[in-house]
Please model this.
Amino acid sequence: MSEYTATICWENRQAKFTDNRYSREHTWKFDGGVEIPASSSPHVVPVPYSNPNCIDPEEAFIAALSSCHMLWFLSIAAQNKFVVKSYSDRAIGIMDKNDYGNLAMTTVRLFPKVVFTGNHLPTEEQIENMHDQAHHACFLANSVKTHITITSIPA
Model:
């Protein structure tokens, strides 16, 4: 079993609060010392109460799923003796109502583009198989109800 921590810090910097006109800007602090400026999404809470220059929880959610998938994909490719030169993904999250009528991140679409190098190159079928293995191995994908699709982009 592993345990992970993050510290989320917010402070009221104005006199009023109960009028709901307060800044949603806050900071995420991680054990390695990294601090990330965060805010609510401007799609959810309008500017100036949200800061579009900060990361929001919805963006972090899709980034975490994409990152987890990528890390598993790279590991599986290495196990299969394929050399990955680069990997990029433009992850897209769709916020919609779930089966209970609540807003939820119902779909995340990953569009990984993987460039391989060397003499031992995978076939398209092998690439799709590695993506499938990565999806089923990803701890985060296994932890959410969100429908996740992976559309491999040819290099």
Notes: The chain has a mean pLDDT of 96. The chain has two domains: 1-55, 57-150. Helices lie at 57-79, 124-137. The two ends are 37 Å apart (CA to CA).
